[in-house]
Amino acid sequence: MSTSTLAEEHVKPVVRWGIGHALPRAVLRLAARRGDLQGRITVEASTGADLTGLFDEIRARGPLAATKVGHTTTRHAIVRDVLADDAFVTTRPRFGAGILGKLAAWSASEVTHPVQPPSLLVVEPPAHTRYRKLVTRVFTARAVEQLRERTQAIADELLDGLDPANPVDLIETYCGLLPVTVISEILGVPPQERATVLALGAAAAPSLDLGLSWRVFRNVESTLNTFDAWLTRHLDALRANPGDNLLSRLIAAREDGAGLTERELKATAGLVLAAGFETTVNLLGNGIALLTQHPDQLATLRARPELWSNAVDEILRFDPPVLLTGRMCSRDTTIAGIPVRRGQLVTTVLAGANRDPEVFERPSAFDITRQNARDHVSFGAGRHYCLGAQLARMEGEIGLRTVFERFPGLRLLTGARRRPTRILRGFERLPASLG
């Protein structure tokens, strides 16, 4: 490799980080200082603050509240409309044909990324239709249900390894290990390689967020490179010796004689690893925190265990793992009578829509008996509705019920800390006494 090529390979990551994370973060901070709603909600989310007042403020500005770059909304009906409307497409920051756009194109990485094409998160029809149809045929309700018994066994094994006499960080010892071990089952990872996937899952999860620090960004890129190399070998092994796992079935899936390309298979596996890990970690951590903070609700669950499934949906409504998602307007249109121009960004605040009093009675109350808890939009809506919703619900139900059944005296200790992320919402540390 020549000196100039070597220098280029060192410069490109800096440019990618600067354009994709440092610049958006600086712009959002400046917008927040000037009172812009888009800037405020993104910046304030990273502090772990209670955003209920801001949700209400945005809702009070009408169906679509104006921001410096477009609109934002916390109204349930409008969130669903935007996410289902084909005038709006998924987006990450775009920089046009100017110098920033040219730098972004020059510095682009070849490694598959969970929020870059061909990831299901960001491709649109017609490619999305073909791609999702193949993936959905594998990730069926029946396939998820077949994982239930194994998920229960994994939860039991993890809790068997905890000493009730010693305080633990539940994120490190349980909430993180349960979903990534289930992901290993989905990906058909041999037992001797699961420690590798455990480490990769934890390190790759921040790839879904915006405004990463340089240190976290470099760690994520290094992890994705390692995962890509490992996945190349793993896919070859599964093709030679298919197993009883969802990734083997995905490799074999065909529609009109055509299956997923190598890059699409890698993108799907990467998305399962990053999205399936982080969001379920947050669901479990947020659920444990909420139920210990609301002992009356936990007592109701102990008296009526059939409510655990509904409790998971109320946790998802009340403190969802994902704060918001953005859509770019692809053509001039109107939403609720308000014009939205091509190129404008509409930020749909999922957590805010889940507190809409037009849909949820007493929206700021945590109530595991809520009859319409499942009406939350924490899994999105429309063609990009979360593919792993049923899996997350199943893992949440088993993971939460089992830890409280095993350790009825569980209580949180001081030192809990929220993640400093802007889109993902959950705990970084959750110290507890198991009782």
Q: What do you see in this structure?
A:
With 435 residues, this protein is an alpha+beta fold. It has one domain: Cytochrome P450 (Cytochrome p450), CATH 1.10.630.10. It is 54% helix and 9% strand. It is built from 18 helices and twelve strands. It has a five-stranded mixed sheet with strand order 1-2-8-5-3. The protein has a three-stranded antiparallel sheet with strand order 4-12-9. Strand 1 and strand 2 form a beta hairpin. It is globular, with a radius of gyration of 22 Å. It holds the Pfam family p450. InterPro entries: Cyt_P450 (IPR001128), Cyt_P450_B (IPR002397), Cyt_P450_CS (IPR017972), Cyt_P450_sf (IPR036396). Keywords: Heme, Iron, Metal-binding, Monooxygenase, Oxidoreductase. It comes from Lentzea atacamensis.
Topology summary:
Blueprint: H1 3-33, H2 37-45, H3 52-60, E1 65-66, E2 70-73, H4 76-84, E3 88-90, H5 99-107, H6 127-138, H7 141-146, H8 148-160, E4 168-169, H9 170-175, H10 177-187, H11 194-204, H12 214-240, H13 246-252, H14 262-293, H15 295-303, H16 308-318, E5 324-329, E6 333-335, E7 338-340, E8 345-349, H17 350-353, H18 389-406, E9 411-412, E10 417-418, E11 427-429, E12 431-433
Parallel strand pairs: 2-8
Antiparallel strand pairs: 1-2, 3-5, 4-12, 5-8, 6-7, 9-12, 10-11
Helix pairs in contact: 1-2, 1-5, 6-13, 8-10, 8-18, 10-11, 10-14, 11-12, 11-14, 14-18, 16-18
